[in-house]
């Protein structure tokens, strides 16, 4: 994981197998300009390709994860530019194509596109005082990176409708109570540490099995239960062709710790 290519991101490997991407555009609360989105994507892609990394954590600072798309950059956008250049689409498609697990550690504001990026990730951790929201209605627009769909799926139509129509924020504690966040922490540092610990645990397993887990869980979002279960079984059967299945089960039978070959 190299720092060189990035101006607004800090890249580190806090534990073996874990990449930590820290968003570092603090003056604008990590608002996502198109250049910043391109940097975030490029970081995801390079971590995806890095064979030493098994899982990644993305976080901001104590004040903001991301305060949304960059409103100052967006304000003069025209319909023909937005439509013609598929504004936002390439970015969100690229994020959703990442196959390694992404854990997001949300502290401070996760508004608009920030809340949407968190929901594109695989696991959300947050601190109790984090502030989530889809405030686009206040700008005369609507969520544009999946917010109306993903938030509604997770927290239910009535709650999502209320939040999106009023533009009201909700806290990290509420995000946890409603099932949007997997864990809630008292402090921002505990949140980042917790995310790194979970990423390290995931990175300690077979990369092949981890990739398959992410793939099958994500399929549940698109398929009905019957096709989803069939898809899961095909992938499950396929894993008996991996070396790591033999390594994992042999180690269990011999009361040893498995040494994964990621094959
Ligand atoms: N875009 C551009 N700049 C932003 C920004 C954003 N989304 N959010 C914050 N900033 C900038 C502010 O303009 C300000 O810059 P200056 O110092 O140059 O004036 C700086 O960050 C600090 O912000 P505030 O002075 O407003 O700080 P605050 O503590 O009073 O408030 C805040 C913080 C509640 C996050 C407030 O800045 C805010 O409401 N931001 C906008 C949030 C928003 O509407 N996000 C949705 C964007 S639309 C979107 O994301 C579309 C989509 O679905 C993809």
Report the structural category. alpha/beta
- Percent strand equals 5-15%
Number of domains: 2
The helix fraction, in percent, is 40-55%
In DSSP terms (H or I, runs of 4 or more residues), the helix count works out at 12
Radius of gyration: 19 Å
CATH superfamily of the largest domain: 2-enoyl-CoA Hydratase, Chain A, domain 1
Would you give the CATH topology of the largest domain?
2-enoyl-CoA Hydratase, Chain A, domain 1
Distance between the termini: 22 Å
Q: Give the helices and strands as they follow along the chain.
A: EEHEEHHHEEHEEHHEHEHHHH
- What CATH first level of the largest domain would be assigned? Alpha Beta
Give the low-pLDDT segments: none
CATH architecture of the largest domain: Alpha-Beta Complex
Q: How is the main sheet built?
A: 6 strands, mixed
Mean pLDDT value? 97
Strand order of the largest sheet: 1-2-3-5-7-10
Question: What is this structure, in a nutshell?
Answer:
The protein has helices at residues 34-49, 71-74, 79-84, 89-96, 113-120, 147-155, 157-166, 172-177, 188-203, 207-219, 225-238, 243-253, and strands spanning 9-12, 18-23, 55-59, 64-66, 102-106, 109-111, 123-127, 131-133, 170-171, 183-185.
């Amino acid at each position: 994981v190299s720092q060189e290519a990035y101006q607004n991101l800090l890249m580190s490997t806090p534990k073996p197998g874990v990449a930590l991407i820290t968003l570092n555009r603090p003056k604008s609360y990590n608002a996502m300009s198109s250049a910043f989105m391109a940097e975030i994507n490029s970081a995801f892609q390079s971590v995806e390709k890095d064979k030493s990394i098994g899982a990644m954590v993305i976080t901001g600072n104590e004040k903001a994860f991301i305060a949304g798309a960059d409103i100052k950059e967006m304000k003069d956008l025209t319909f023909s530019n937005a439509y013609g250049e598929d504004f936002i689409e390439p970015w969100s498609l690229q994020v959703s194509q990442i196959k390694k697990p992404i854990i997001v550690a949300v502290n401070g504001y996760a508004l608009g596109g920030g809340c949407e990026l968190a929901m594109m990730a695989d696991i959300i951790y947050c601190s109790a005082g984090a502030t989530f929201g889809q405030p686009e209605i206040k700008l005369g627009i609507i969520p544009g990176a999946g917010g109306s769909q993903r938030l509604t799926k997770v927290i239910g139509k009535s709650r999502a409708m209320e939040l999106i129509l009023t533009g009201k924020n909700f806290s990290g504690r509420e995000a946890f109570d409603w099932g949007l966040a997997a864990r809630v922490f008292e402090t921002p540092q505990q949140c980042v540490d917790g995310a790194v610990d979970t990423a390290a645990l995931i990175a300690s397993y077979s990369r092949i099995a981890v990739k398959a887990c992410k793939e099958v869980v994500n399929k549940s979002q698109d398929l009905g239960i019957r096709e989803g279960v069939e898809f899961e079984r095909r992938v499950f059967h396929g894993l008996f062709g991996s070396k790591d299945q033999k390594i994992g089960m042999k180690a269990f039978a011999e009361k040893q710790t498995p040494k994964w070959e990621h094959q």
